[in-house]
Design brief:
Elements lengths: L1 H14 L9 E8 L11 E7 L4 E6 L4 E7 L2 E7 L9 E8 L5 E2 L2 E2 L13 H9 L21 E10 L7 H10 L25 E5 L3 E6 L5 E6 L18 E7 L2 E7 L16 E10 L2 E9 L8 E10 L15 H5 L8
Length: 345
Amino acid sequence: MIRRSVLAIAVGVLFGLTAGQLAAGELAGRLVDPDGKAVERLESPITVTDAAGRSFSGKVSRDGTYRISALPAGTYVLDLDLPTRLYERHGRAGIVVDQKAATVLDLRLDWGMNLGTVGDDPLLQGSDLRAKTRNVDGPVPRMPDGKPDLSGVWTNFGDSFAGAVPMQPWAQALFDEWRKIPQDNPGAYCLPQSGLMTMTNYPYKFVQTPGAIVQLIEDMVISHRQIHLDGRAHPDAQAWNPSWYGHSIGRWDGDTLVVETVGFNEQTPGFGIHSEALKLTEKYRRTSYGRMDIEIIAEDPQAWTGPYRRTRQAGLVEGTEIVEFVCAEGAPAHAAKRAPWKARP
């Protein structure tokens, strides 16, 4: 009993959460890894939602502590999606908060897909790489024709999307069934993890010319795509062999590069269950020397009920280049041939 009281006092002092200081309920604590060690360097929002559907947000600090203040009394569901692959997304239900005392809750995270291998985490790597860039807020470089020059190596940060892909019921049912088979994840077989290179968290590079932009990526497969700027149209659908990355054409709308991509195959990952009618519209706007805003709108009238929108920010990486990414696995026959959406009733 004495030990428990001492611990409670120590925790209260640590977070400054004495009952007399509380104008409303608060939830606070720290993050620890599966081995009980403090989780640090990962600034991220953390959200709780009550039974009425109201959401309240706080922040995870670099020292691994978090705090969500001004919470009405009630029972909450917690959601934490850290910008890293070291740890799985963390959820917790049944968290009771009142206004008489702070609720202190430490969160023990589970290892993510790279099982805690720090050097294999593209999100942490991206943060370290972006920190090398100087003059981040400097002017936007421009091509001889006056258009913004997007050239350089970039890594993403920040991610906002309006919920899940709005699949039709038959597609959602197939997607839910597919998720029960984790070994069918394309990345597990060294196949592309997304049909859009700028949705991943690995470094990618733009090489810009007046007539085309080539995008290279350091991902599961070393690959590229061409964004044609010469005014051509998409090829006839019957003549185009559907591919992982589709066929891209671009145009300038002021200082914003607008890219339209079609011609995806049905196994292109990153967009739930979809058909070959999938169409992507991307908008790239370099806002300063070291920053770029990205908006993505995906549509598939054959498999979805509406569009899917996502925004990202990218930071310029100076002093580095795209390097080899070697993946030695091979897709088994059942994965290579898998196209469950063709089983539509």
